[in-house]
Design a protein that fits this description.
Layout lengths: L1 H45 L7 H4 L13 H33 L1
Protein name: eIF3h C-terminal domain-containing protein
Organism: Oesophagostomum dentatum
InterPro entries: eIF3h_C (IPR045810)
Length: 104
């Protein structure tokens, strides 16, 4: 169970880093697009052909740095939850059994 929790913590940290990188990437793409549009408007006003947006579109997006995306995290979470549920059921059963044994 502790290994699963450690794996979940690593996945959560990787996902947090991915979200930050994705936001940074989206902001960069937005700024570059706005700058290119302003530049193209100036070029059109001067009678020059506009520049292509292809180089902006070809920017690589950040990748989630886990082996199978979030699949491993979900499986670890489900396994940990199942183990916790089992422990709760066993403890309730043992408590009930203990209380019944005190009566006899």
């Amino acid at each position: 169970m502790m290994a699963n929790i450690d794996e979940l913590n690593k996945s959560i940290a990787a996902y947090g880093k991915y979200v930050n990188d994705k936001q940074r990437h989206d902001t960069l793409i937005y700024n570059l697009t706005q700058k290119r549009q302003a530049e193209n408007e100036q070029r059109i006003a001067r009678g020059e052909p506009p520049l292509s947006m292809d180089d902006i579109r070809k920017q690589k997006e950040p990748q989630l740095q886990t082996r199978n995306g979030m699949l491993d995290a979900m499986l670890s979470s489900c396994e940990t939850q199942a183990l916790a549920d089992f422990c709760v059921k066993v403890s309730v059963y043992l408590r009930t059994f203990y209380l019944l044994s005190l009566r006899f």
